[in-house]
Amino acid sequence: RTNNPIPSQCKLFYFEVDIIDEGKNKWIGIGFCEKAVNLNGMPGCYDGSWGYHGDDGNLFYCSGNGNPYGPLFSTGDTIGCCLNFTNNTVFYTKNGINLGSIAFRNLKGTLYPCVGSRSQGGSFEINFGIRKFKFAGNAE
């Protein structure tokens, strides 16, 4: 989880995760959470967190039960997460392409970007806009 929350004045917030090495188990989760979330689990597996997981392509929303969403992702992929506070929705991108459907609805509260891995040797780079994003499309 980042140290700082997404600024409350944001209408759109987007970040990308470059997967340098998926690690031994290939378990990667990308999403967002509330400040008080249990950081010992994957994004989406605990109350106050939401995540898209690379090993099964499922979405997780405050529980350990996933729902099918998109393609698997692993080493070499870039996954983007867009939180749209204008219509309170979230969508994901893979390698610059919008995955085409809403992942989560009814966002509220103070949220933090987060990435989780339960995979020895995994490594990631997070881009909050210091470099050009792979996704350049419309975020609506």
UniProtKB/TrEMBL annotation:
Transmembrane segments: none annotated. InterPro entries: B30.2/SPRY, B30.2/SPRY_sf, ConA-like_dom_sf, SPRY_dom, Ubq-SigPath_Reg. Residues 1-133 form the B30.2/SPRY domain. The keyword Disulfide bond does not apply. GO terms for molecular function: carbohydrate binding. It comes from the Eukaryota. Pfam families: SPRY. Keywords: Lectin. PANTHER family: RAN BINDING PROTEIN 9-RELATED. This is Concanavalin A-like lectin/glucanase domain-containing protein. It comes from Gigaspora rosea.
